[in-house]
Amino acid sequence: MTNFSQILPPNDVTQAVQVILGESNYNHWRQLMTSYLKIHKLWRYVTGERPKLIKGPDETDSSFADRLEDWDSINQIIITCFTKTSVTYINMLIRKFDAAKEAWDFLAERFKLRIYRYQHLSKLRSIRRKPGQSVEDVFVEMSFLWNELTLLNLSLNMLIVLKANLRLLGTQETESWGQARIFHQLPSGLNMEVIVQKSAKEKDPDGEKSPPLVFVHGSYHAAWCWAEHWLPFFSASGFDCYALSLLAQGESDAPSGSVAGSLQTHAGDVADFIQRNLNLPPVLLGHSFGGLIIQYYIANMRNEPTLEADTSYPKLKGTVLVCSVPPSGNSGLVWRYLFSKPVAAFKVTHSLAAKGFQTSLSLCKETFFSSTMEDNLVLRYQELMKESSRMPLFDLRKLNASLPVPKVTNSFTEILVLGAKDDFIVDTEGLNETGRFYNVTPICIEGVAHDMMLDCSWEKGANVILSWINGLS
């Protein structure tokens, strides 16, 4: 039997490794953890020099079981050292491993790819078509980067970045045509990803200016979900469009802690972007939980900005709630499903809470899309959703305790409540609750599902919204 008193580390790992592993400090954490494991004679388990045991030809079952138990115990102690010195969402990823080497290699591979990701994002941001430079010359400049991206087998999300930059290489000499990715720095110092697509129409300096449109996504999504169809559609209709990725979603930075934020912090980030970047009151559009964030924004609007600029909520031209979580949250939806549609309740819970949509193509389709959606498109969006959320948007217990959102007595913005007939997540009663709360008649669109902006009939919702925006006074 092993003398554990000689090799097991004391409960001082957090004192010896005084770094909590997050998104930006892997190399520092690795150096400290390596030293710690070597001091306690555990390093060879991480390198694989002490692999999983094999029973000897003359060894009794009892003796082998004892040795295997020792080996398992030591590996679990090492993995516990990893989990004690990492943020919650990372230690959740490594708890599944039985061998310390597997967990160590997983972290090394994960952060190696992340470093490559940021390096290539920087390269993509730096490539611009210079005045007088031909498109052919620009493509020659990009060919090496393209080969690197192909060899690295980077995600579809990354390739959307490339797609956006390729659009900038067209025949126009400015970035006002096509999509561009920028990063808005919040007061916290964290950067928020924004996909921008300016109006494709020439602006009349003497004509009435169209309001800018700001899009806020829901859980498991990011700015890319608007960039597929609705940004090009509304850009072609004469609107400047801005799709935000909330913190820890898409390519936005992640805060410390185990969740991306709260209703208050997310709404404050949206307000900060609007206040510091837009000259006209925008129309704010939110999908699913993004709609709930916008409801909190509306509840905190005032006739005049507050004295502290960073905490004010700028005025809006209008608000569009797309398949939005109702003001009371999603608990009412869950209870209704439990009593009226128990099978659907199980599917929704398994799909979203247990993230079953990430591994089941059929469940992903049923949760977010119409039955007629092509499987290759569902698969593409499923992959993007897997990569979009590095942290949950909210702590759901704290969120539900803070709901409903405050009642708006005198709304300072026009509100459109839009739902989908085939929505698997937000039912008709949820849609009607939102309409009653804001004293408006909701519009329910036939033939589309929860992800209205990505569904095969995405233009149905887009046309309704366009008509409504054009009717704003």
UniProtKB/TrEMBL annotation:
One of its GO terms (molecular function) is lysophosphatidic acid acyltransferase activity. GO terms for biological process: lipid homeostasis; phosphatidic acid biosynthetic process. Transmembrane segments: none annotated. Coiled coil: none annotated. This is AB hydrolase-1 domain-containing protein. The lineage of its organism: Eukaryota, Viridiplantae, Streptophyta, Embryophyta, Tracheophyta. Pfam families: Abhydrolase_6. InterPro entries: AB_hydrolase_1 (IPR000073), AB_hydrolase_fold (IPR029058). Residues 213-455 form the AB hydrolase-1 domain.
